[in-house]
Structure formats: C-alpha cells, structure tokens
Amino acid sequence: MTGTPPREPEKEQGGGNTPPRRDGVGAPVLAPAATGRRPPPGPTRPEFWRSPLRGPWLTAVLGTVLLFGITVLFVTGLLSYAAYNPDLAAVNDQTPGKGVLGFYLFPWPTDPPWLYRLTQGIHVTLGVALVPVLLAKLWSVIPKLFAWPPLRSPGHAVERLSLLLLVGSVLFEFATGVLNIQLHYVFPGSFYTLHFYGAWVFMAAFVVHVAFRLGPTVRSLRARRLRTELRVPAERTEPEPLDGTGLVPARPAAPTMSRRGLLGMIGAGSLALFAVTAGQSIGGPLRGTALLAPHGRDPGSGPGGFQINKTAASVGVRARDIGPDWRLTVRAAGRETVLTRDRVMALPQHTAALPIACVEGWSTDDQHWSGVRLTDLAALVGLRGAAPAVFVESVQRHGSFRSTVLRDNQVRDSRSLLALRVNGADLSPDHGYPARIIVPANPGVHNTKWVTRLTFRGPA
Amino acid sequence: MNRFRRLYGASPLHLLLASASFALTAYAGVRLFESEAMEVAVWLFGAAVLHDLVLLPLYCAADRALGAVPPRALNHVRVPAFISGLLLLVWYPLILSRSAPYASSTGLSPNVFRERWLLITAALFGASAVLLLLRQWRSGRAA
User: Would you say which domain of life the source belongs to (chain B) (predicted)?
Assistant: First the structure.
C-alpha cells in the first residue's frame, strides 16, 4: 500500500478484540518502537496517556468532520477573496504579490444579491462552530507529539515537519479569523495578507495529511459502527483495541465518560458557539440571539438603525467634509461634471432592496436604498453605451478601503446605485451621507461611503 | 524499492507528496513572511507550541482536578465548564473588553459581553444542576 505514513511495524497487531492489559505494571503491552530502549519518564511513555476514549476511531470521526468543514471554509474563503476583485485594480488588491495563488479569480457576480452574505456568513459561522472539533481532534492525537524516538527515519522527520506546519497554520488561521471578526488587531500585519497566505500554507499541509490518512481513517471508521458506538454508556466503554497508532492508551484509566458523551459534549460546544453567533448573519428577529457575536444588536432604531462597519468619526470624516460644500465629481476620459447634492437628487432616482454583508461574517437584512444608477452617472460624462469599470473615491481620510474599483458587470447592474437615501430617509453620516455606493453581492467595504469622486475608466 | 523504504522509512510516493507540499508551503510562506517575518513565525509556530504545551496541558489538568467530584455529578460539572470555557476562548476579546476599536467603529456598546457570558455560564451550570437533581430524584424513586 503506497502513501502509508511511516509506522511501527506492528501496525496491524491488536486487530482482534483482546482487551489491553490494565495493570500498568511492567512494560506496555506493545513496545513503542523496535528500538529496545525505554523512553524517558513523562509524556513520551505510552502509559502516560490514560484516557480510554483516545483511539483511531475517535480521531477518524473528528477528522472526517474537519475534512468536510475545513473544505467548506477553504472554498468560501477563496470565494471571499475573489469577491474583492483583486485582479481588477491595485486599490482592490490587499495581496499584490499573490502570484499564481490567484489563479482561479473570476469576475464576482451581482446575482444573487445575497451571495456574499451567504458565502461569508457560512465561512465565519462555520469557522467559529468548528473550534471545539479542532481542539478535540488535536487532543485525540496529542500522544503522537511525544512519540518515541522523536525521529525514527527520514520519512518520519518529513512527516513531523509537515504536521508542525499543519497544526501551526490551522491554529494561525482560526486565531487570526476569530481575532479579526472582533476587531482585535493584535496579529502582526494585515489580516488579508496573513489569513490568505496562511490559508495556502495550511492547505499545502492539509492535502498531504488527508492523502496520507484517508486510508487509515476509512478503515478505522469501518471498524466500528457509529450508531452502535453511540449506544454504549460510560460504564461499558472500553478502550479501542491496542494497535500501532500510539493513540490507544497502554494503561487506560477507568472511563468517566462514554464516546457518545464526548462527541455530544463537542457537539454541544459547536452548537453553543453557533447559537451565540449565527444570528448576526441570519439577521431579522434572530439577530438578538447572537449574544456574544460583535454584530448581534442594532445600533439604534429608525431608517439608519442597521449595522455599521466603521462610523464616520472612527475614520476621520469631519462635518465639513460632508456638509454643504460637499461636491460629487464624475469623470471620464476628457469629461468632468461637478454636482451639488441637490443636483444629484434631481437626477432620476431608483430604488433597490439590498443587504450589507461584511468580510467579518455579519450582514444586514435588505435595506431599501434610493439614489442614482451608476449607469446614469456614466451617461452624464458621455458613456451612453455599455458602462465601464469605475474608480470610486471617498472623503474618508484614513483607514483601509477609502477607494475602490467596481467592475463593469457591477456598474451595469440596474440595482447598483450611488445611494442618497435609505429606508425613506437621508443617509445618516455613519451610513455614508451624502452619498454611498450600494452594489448587489458586493463585500461591504467595497460599498464605499462618503463618495466624492467617480472616475469611469473609458469605454469598455 | 525495498532499499528506498529501508533508508527513507516510507514509500517513494510519501516523499513525492511531501516534496510537492513543502514547495507550495515555501511559495506561500515567502509571501506570508514578507513583512514582519520574525513575528509571523512566532505566531505560526508559537500557535502550535502554545496549544500543545500550554493550553492542552492546562485543560487536561483542570479536567483531572474534576476527579474530586463524585462520579455521578462529574459530567454535570464538566460539560457546562467546557462550554463556558469554549465561549470565553473564542469571544474573549469582546468578553474581556480587549477590542479597542469596537465601540467607535460599530457604534455599539462594548459593555454587554461580559455580563452576557456570565449569565450564559450561570444558565449552563444551573440547567446542569437541575438535570442532576432530576436524575437523582428518578434514581431515588426507582430504588
């Protein structure tokens, strides 16, 4: 069998159901390796690890959940990266050195309008809910960290290095994600750079880990039926048969919990995290259930009583920047028009019901925006045919995403507006007064607030 | 083939896959470490060290300390403690008010999370205690 990781030669031993010795006296039933030398006292000795629940079956169950969960996280993460249209313009690109890692990029669509709400809501909520599964998986394999001898062969060294990268990067990805959604920017550098390249470092190790372990995992899962296992109470819980994996305890303690109990506890942990988080993405009356998530409450009531990513004050937007002296400049090659807010209001007004969806996973329900279609603004500067991409600039003085480029498919969507009003009232300063971009399925930070200049990029 | 396996300790496919993986790791890693390389390395490898050698031993020790609880009640303490600790682990920046920009960015009060977490914790232990009482009552009646 190729692709099998380096293992002790006695791997297939203990395939029967002989119960392991429980006396703990003398040498463990299986020698740790054919070295003849006993490991130093402590966690390197097989009898140090006592939990009767550890074993290849338990690890396989947790690994399978992570295999599916992390695959969804990776795909939704790549989609989120594409949603920023990083290949379109330098201002959209948080990771200009990405090289081939952006090979799959495609123009982000505007339909369905809740697309980013869905993909990013899944990415963040699922990531949060998988934390206990990840911790349990790492707990289930911890004896292998202390395998003795630490390096048996070059192949074993290669595998251990790969596992260090796997564990380090998966914790790095979960940590940066969990910290970023709480605006706790303690990580060293831009979240986009760290989380994106970190994801590729992780995937490189994850794919080979799956390749090496899939066979043993499937065999372990087949060795006992989940449904049967879930009927065993704590007092009848036996350790898995001793094998060469190093996971099954050589000197197991008496069980205080069944495998059903452990899996139930992990599931309850996931469920609890889901329950206090998901409401910030689902919205509506369920928002209030997101008790510990950052966007589980609405900031006030009334037309502007929906989620704010960055308030005007927090990014240095001053009253005079958005007061009566505010002007909107619309430009294209050789043409320029400067409009007061009243002039913009006098242009044909259209409405669109669209959500705000943030990379941090939270989103709003559809808000009722009204304003001028981006295609009408393009027509003002002579672009009457198919509208091109547009460079959008804000009066915002500091912070990221003061400017962005919207792709032509986004500009041409009839629901894409330079919005002046929302839910029947003028925009509030925190929602981008005097005018903001709203585009279906667009990541929140690309729906630029406090817009002062639109530069169409010439005929498409 | 056998000679290779004896020297390397695994199949040639193992080495091929691992080499491909390390090459991709290096490609992404160069970009990950482009700025603040030292700190990023501390975060990346420190995460593994911190988890394996600090967090995991700590919660294992905490779990062993539960050994003093009578077996019948053990999981009635273990499960709510696990869930409460998990909620704190994930949401500690908000619960412990460590997120400086939160209030000014979102326009929301940062002062609700600690109380909510404490109340959730109280509810978890309370519900677990009620379940334990019910079980004791039922086993008392059955006896």
Answer: Bacteria
Per-residue pLDDT of A51-87, as tens digits, reads 999 999 999 999 999 999 999 999 999 999 999 999 9
Q: Where are the extended beta strands (E) located within A208-327?
A: none
Q: Are A208 and B13 an interchain contact pair (Cβ–Cβ within 8 Å)?
A: no
> How high is the ipTM of this complex?
0.96
Q: Which domains, and CATH codes, for chain A?
A: 46-275 (no CATH), 313-456 (3.90.420.10)
Q: State pLDDT tens for residues A205-260.
A: 999 999 999 999 999 999 999 999 999 999 999 999 998 889 999 999 999 999 99
**CB–CB contacts below 8 A, A to B:** 218
Q: Which residues of B touch A364 (CB under 8 A)?
A: none
Q: How far apart are alpha carbons A327 and A345 in whole angstroms?
A: 12
Nearest-CA neighbor of A196 among A129, A279, A101? A101
Interatomic CA distance for residues B69 and B73, integer angstroms: 7
User: Quick check: A197 and B31 CB within 8 A?
Assistant: yes
Report whether B14 contacts A3 (CB < 8 A): yes
- DSSP string covering A11-46, please? TTTT-S-PPPP-S--SS-SS-SSTT--PPPSSTTSG
Distances (CA, A) of B87 to A75, A274, A280, A407, B108: 26, 10, 16, 40, 20
Separation of alpha carbons A305 and A303, rounded Å: 6
The dihedrals phi and psi of A335, each to the nearest 5 degrees, come to: -125, 145
CB A162 within 8 A of CB A144: no
